[in-house]
Input
Amino acid sequence: MRLQKFMAQAGIASRRASERLIAEGRVAVNGRTITAPGTRIDPERDRVTVHGELLRAKRRLYLALNKPPGVLCTRHDPGRRPTVLSLLPAAWTGLYPVGRLDRDTEGLLLLTNDGEFCLRLTHPRYGVPKTYHAAVQGRVDPSLLPALVRGVRQGRDHLKAERARLLRATHSHSLVELDLREGKYHEVRRLLAALGLTVTALRRTRIGPIRLGELPPGKWRVLTPREVDALRRLEIPARPSPAGAAPAHGAGRRRSSSRAS
Ligand code: URA
Output
């Protein structure tokens, strides 16, 4: 691992600022001052000191939480309403939600203290597929499903599902399953409302390869290394580029990670 990356992960400074500390001769590896940019270290074995102080690699955490309705997806609420962090051990102050769920939406939310992982998963370019179960008032006619996939325009947004299925339909209520990739503000509620449907409850059941499963509301679990790896290796979907234009940096199919709504 590059020295500046290790320093950033240990929380000493950003990568850029760490590079400056290295260039200024303030960093030593195993007692030897290092000034060369890009020096590689073994985080398990090498002793990195800054101003003589030993850096410890921060333990990186990746959690799946079943967010109950009424809980805010924020780290701190000035109104002292319950936040997702209040559902976690008090010592885990460095965690933040990967993307957001509305206050009234429940279900799967990922949290991490790995800033780079979070940025990649929430970057608009990546579009991780997510599944939602929307309970709506009244009987939904199956003939409405193609309209959910065609989508609707709202201002600059094109709201659309990648896939829509009717899981249940009685005269009083229906349950619609939707897969979306975009992660736009209130996208499921806005899409359904635009087609005349009233959402009574919304639950996210899947983010890419991670499923909510039997996790009870308000409970969390640590993602397995295999799950974290699977999220890291999500493929970036190809984006159409304007005719004749070179693809944007990083566009096209390749292995990497994505984003949550
Ligand atoms: N779409 C919504 O409308 N709300 C959410 O919380 C997530 C997706």
User: Anything to note?
Assistant: The mean pLDDT is 87. The domain at 59-253 is CATH 3.30.2350.10 (Pseudouridine synthase).
